[in-house]
């Protein structure tokens, strides 16, 4: 994410419903006036200021509203806590390109493009709040609209999560039968990546929603708790080579929408390139790290060492107690626990238990 995009996210959080800044903007909107507000005061901004008066008072919604009644811009400190200047004429470089038409918006865009400092323009005629950060521009959306978009995304997330649970269950069963193919692995990773993207979309709505999004945040937490860990475990089990975990995570995250629907693109991202569709039916052996996390109270450090010593889940399951005890941190009790847990998992995945 670019620096401007990161700053935009921060500004949207600072302007979320419930914050002093947002309350001030809402008062200005209700009063049918406009405003030009610079969210930062440094030497560069000072150079662009002409006239007005200096002050150094705590930011409050009422003060912001009163000062916005005057002509010109209001300058807020970089930490958004204090009002530093008001009634200021801003004189940004007129050669900076702008796509806006009204003077207020043109000034806001040029000031932010020239300095990188966020600037808010509240249009008196349109009653629209626009945020400029560097070369980026965003119009604030009403909380009700954001909430309905977020709820829609949450419904989709719920449906995907249910399908993922089913697919992950199938993968687990097939892993214990040494019959999981590249198709099942990529299908699971595809769903996980889609869920990650919807999650991040909802998170950005939540940032903008501030206090209005509390309930939604709880529902989201409930739906995706442990999802990132599970995703990394599937990757750890299958990524090739073993050391390419981070590269694979990045490649999956960078797949465009068109590539994400193709299982061969997912396979490529995790280091299993395919030549034709039948390659997706090749059996892949899991390293068994995800299965090991189901062993009660087994620390990750030990799981990693077991994964280094044994290459596949089958080999792990067949390891003797003495062999398991060669791993630092594994005594007779833990060796038994590991063995019993893996055997139980395999039994639970047998055709007799599963019914297929
Ligand atoms: N360079 C500037 N510095 C400070 N304030 C400005 C500047 N340009 C415009 N403004 C403020 O914006 C107000 C409205 O200006 P103008 O009508 O030209 O802009 P606009 O974009 O059409 O605004 P709106 O959409 O609110 O009608 C001015 O009265 C002034 O308070």
UniProtKB/TrEMBL annotation:
GO terms (molecular function) for this protein are:
diadenylate cyclase activity
Among InterPro entries, the record links this protein to: DisA, DisA_sf, DNA_integrity_DisA_N_sf, DNA_integrity_scan_DisA_link, DNA_integrity_scan_DisA_N, RuvA_2-like
UniProt key word Transferase: yes
Instruction: List the keywords (alphabetical).
Output: ATP-binding, Nucleotide-binding, Nucleotidyltransferase, Transferase
Quote the catalytic activity from the record.
2 ATP = 3',3'-c-di-AMP + 2 diphosphate
Annotated EC: 2.7.7.85
The keyword Chloroplast appears for this protein? no
Enzyme superclass (EC): transferase
DAC domain span: 5-143
Question: Short name of one Pfam family for this protein?
Answer: DAC
Tell me the protein's name.
Answer: DNA integrity scanning diadenylate cyclase DisA
Q: Which organism is it from?
A: Gleimia hominis
The encoding gene is: disA
